Amino acid sequence: MTRSFWFCLLVICLSLSAPIRAQERAKVPTFVKSEQCRSCHKQEHELWEQSDHSWAWRPATTENVLGDFSDISFEHHGITTRFFTRDNKFWIETNDEKGQPEISEILYSVGVRPLQQYLIAEEGGRLQVLDIAWDTESKKWYMVFPGQTDNVPGNALHWKGVYKNWNGRCAECHATDFKKNYEPRTRSFKSQWSEIGVTCEACHGPGQAHVQWAEKPDIFRQQDYLDIDLKGFVQSHAATPSEIEIQQCAACHSRRSALSGNSPLPGTSFADHYDLALLRPDLYHPDGQIKDEVYVLGSFKQSKMYAAGVTCSNCHNVHSGKIKAEDNRLCTQCHNPAGNTEFPSLPKKTYDSEEHHHHAVASEGGQCVSCHMPTQTYMEVDDRRDHRFGIPNPAQSRALGTPDACISCHQNNGLTWAERQMSKWYPDTNPGPKGFAEVFGMFETEKGTKAALENILTVAEDENFSAIVRASALERALPYGANLPWPRMAAYLRDDSDLIRGVAARLHRQASLQLRLQRLPALLTDDAKTVRFAAARSMLDVPAQALSAGQRQNLKAALREFQVSIVAGADHPNAQMALASLALSLRNAPAARAAISEALTIDPQFTDAWIMLARLDIAEKRPDLATITLDNAEMALPNSPVIQQFYGNYLASQRQFDAAITHLQKAIKLQPDDTKMVMDYGAVLSQAGQHEEALKVLSGISNANADALFLKANALLQLDRKEDAKRTILKLLAQDPGYTLPDAFQQLFSRN
């Protein structure tokens, strides 16, 4: 623990070399709280008061707590939780992190519809989120994550664990002017906020200057404050460009990583405070439809509406949060025969008709959102609409295994029926897979091949696709490492999108020193903090003498920002892993080991931390420590296929083949569809001399996979099946003509 904290302190000390000047800090307006706004903005305040934003976080009072606390019990996984009142307060009795019964007071409620959750105070300033919630529509208690089998006492997913911590995971988006204030040395929080709930100042900024203007406009001095308008607003949102408004909402309505522990001031750049999650396979379907909880922005950035300048307030009332109409009138304010002068490129035609949607007018099937904004249910009861505004494509859904809006209603008819209907209704539409969806769908089975790389680069280079799609394609090139076509990579570093520039800078971590020196220094002063971070990380091992004095200064400044960002998230195991990576880049193995240990203290089931620790043991040539580490990892995560796979491969490297095969068999049993695990198992079987068994294992892998073909050819050669080996090698070379073959393979052909 100590080493991790001294490394954190070192980073913090480095970060303090460029503080905000006291006179500048004094000019930032202070927060005045929403009651001050009510006197002049009564109508807006009344709309906000019953909004989801207002209910985002409230004290646990009789008016605010909606759940049944009338001494009622709820059981899940054999654990009984009792909800009751005492002394006009709300309480629960349930198992603590050690599995022992414990009574705790409910301090706060969270949310209003369709569910409400509850917060409990723990030692060290922690607020923890109970994962049993109240369904406000069905009026019952339920488990928010019933599929989680590891949210049990002693696990980090238990409601008292790090992943259910309110201060570090949720509070920023449920409060106004939130400051996390995590203390790494004591693993405690001293969190602060202006108000709980998403209040006026969460969107408009601190109101001190605006109140002064409102009270005495004749003597108000705009120059007394930093970055305010003529009426004292930090962000008035009057005549605000659509992108600024979207970024304001996106701060919370997005799947992203925070770059600080504090709420940013309204109006500041999203990319200076958050790193947006791209269209990754665990978050989105290949066609960009929502899969995991992604909170709107990543979906919306894919849409034609975003490209046309549509913004949140075109559809949502900004104070009540409600949509402007509950039926098709919401969409027909623009999609109609007269069009909308604000969006002149929109075709002028009748959309709300049976001729267009082929359903009875006003029926559920005739609602625009039913086809173009299908829902995904999260937290068991919370239906959220996909904001990519896609078009149903049953043929594509059949080919790629993606959800289809038609079948979500017509569940008994099937995709073939839906394809026929779509072909009949829209005969001029190309029904098959197209665009990036097909490429992303095929990439997961073909990654590693040159064809897959070429396909994703084709998407990345096509400016007809949205920036988030292009960046997501480029991100898929990361595993190709030094084999990337570097001449083509330069253009991405100059792209208009910070998403694309950021991924391109990450890719260049694998480029030669010469290329990095040529291309990355300019990004150290990029407008987007996410890009500066990516460039700095990719230049960590660049010799100082290879840089000019100005470049060294820019690198130092970018690294300082990056260090501050990591430390701001030190309560989370991922941040500790980032500290470990930074320490290794600086060749500080003790600090890296300490940060990894801290990550495992926070989350003993953190797979990546166990793997990284084992890699460090191996790099330091300590097989005794590596074995202990992997034994401990297996005890902490007995059902982890990744741990079993890594342990098996490590034992094979030590020529302990019997034990290696046992671990790899366990890995495949736990995750039978993982191609890489199957290939590793086949490779180790061949290393152990079990070539026939290796061929059986590898037979299920597609011949589109060049590495699998190599393993098959090698097993055939070892079995002296030379002709079969040659045919397999020819298939491999047809897939990848540049594949490097060992001498034994080349000699096989030279004998002819």
Automatic annotation (TrEMBL):
Protein name: Tetratricopeptide repeat protein
InterPro entries registered for this protein in UniProt: Cyt_c-552/4, Multihaem_cyt_sf, Multiheme_Cytochr_ET, TPR-like_helical_dom_sf, TPR_rpt
TPR repeat extents: 641-674
Keywords, sorted A to Z: Signal, TPR repeat
Domain named Cytochrome c-552/4: residues: 36-62, 167-205
Pfam families to which the protein is assigned, alphabetical: Cytochrome_C554 (PF13435), TPR_19 (PF14559)
Signal peptide: 1-22
